[in-house]
Amino acid sequence: MWLEYRELDELEDEVFDFGEExxxxxxxxxxxxxxxxxxxxxxxxxxxxxxxxxEMAFCPNQHGYWLEDDEDTxxxxxxKKEEAGVQxxxxxxxxxxxxxxxxxxxxxxxxVRDLFH
Length: 117
Fold this sequence. Notes:
With about 120 residues, this protein is of the alpha+beta class. The chain has one domain (about 1-115). Helices cover about 50% and strands about 20% of the residues. A five-stranded antiparallel beta sheet has the order 1-5-4-3-2.
């Protein structure tokens, strides 16, 4: 399946709600292939999608991405996993902020002072 450049973002956004910056880096490194872009005829490059074990090809001229059988489904699964990780991180940050607020509250500080008196 050929996805135009923006269509991969649209596919990911079906299950990922935290914005582009939270998705992380798409391509860390790539190698050449013998396959050609259907739009410009340049050689496609292959890469590991967001460093997962999913190998995809892309046009270096930003025309699009080539996905093999069911790789669109795999992209959705991986983005769900990414979203769960972001949600877990946000929850942990919220819990830590709440803990710090409690520690800074007068009642907590009073209890600590009382321990040392």
